[in-house]
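Issue 218. Parser rejects a valid record. Input:
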Amino acid sequence: MTAARRDGWWIVAGLFLVLTVSSGFGFYNFSVYISVLAAARDFTVAEVSVAVSLFFVVGGVAGMVVARLIDRFDVRWIMVCGALLGGIALAGAGRATQLWQLYCLFAVFGIGNSAVSLIPATTLITRWFPGRNRSVALSIASTGLSMGGVAVTPVSAWLLRVLGVETSLTWFGAAFFVLVVPVALGIVRAAPPATDTSTPRPSDGRDWTYAEAVRSRFFVLVTTGYVLCMGAQVGGISHLYSRAVQIADVTVAAGTVQALTIMSITGRFFGGWVVTRVPLRSFMLINVTGQALGLSVLAQAQAPWQLLLGAGLFGATVGNLLMLQPLWLADAFGERAYPRAFALSNALSVIGVAAGPTLLGVLFEGFGYGIAYFGAVSVSLAAGITLFSAGAAPRRTIAKELV
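Output the parser choked on:
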């Protein structure tokens, strides 16, 4: 194994830890934050759900700025700044007593988290792994997203019960900073030694320009499909803990979240191998269908075993769907246009991500969780139809200078 390849796999390991922290204190913990903050501050579930939506909206928009900064500055310092900003905001959220304070802090948390999450991670992997190993490297690193739910969420739920909101979130914010910074400064490198990312390079004929990529029919349909897909996914995940508490107790609820994340890890490792042998589009459609099936079981669940079954089916698709978006776009448009194209697609997908928790929260307040989760099923099926319509990844044959 060459030194560059060895360094690449060390970076994958470091990004695994960073994404564990990012998703654990952010993505997966929101199902706990919604329940705990609503009870501790006398907010409604729907009101706290809006704070979660703000995190995703602001983070998605900030990701577009992060993508541009990655092209101009050392990604390590971008990650350090994100860890600092996110840690301060998360610590402050525990002391928020008014809704506007909570909304502002979650928005700032979204900005910080965007600098240590998928955009820097997938950009680094795209640079370090241009060939067949890209899907394997991305599946390993992005498994950290699921590991956050396994390693962080159960401990977070326990600490919030034992220590209370203010103390727990202060420690969560400190951990967010302390765990990310050593990896960013000690392990991460912007690109392989032979690659100079400080100045634009001419296209090799395979890469699209950013302008070409974002105007293509493929980009529009894939992004629209992901708006719907992520809305159903994040809405279902953000309310999963509360849904389980409604049927059973907090122990079963924590176990339900763990079941989802364990299956997400298992599914993602399997998926990283599958996509080297199966067309990305086919595997994408299988996972969207599986997501709808898992959400259907959760909508009808009346016993703990049904919660675990639904969470397991749903979880088997979560990791793969998050991994497939960057893989599909990188495969279609190439390394040059990828960071900005993915950042834009991710930012637009956040419309669904933000709407999902709020939609399920509003449906829950009016009709209960059964109808709320069936709403997520409908959105997931619409996503599948849209992604099917996108067709196979396009191939560019004319070389143009990157803009």
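Fixed in the parser; the record now loads. Residues 68 and 340 are 7 Å apart (CA to CA).
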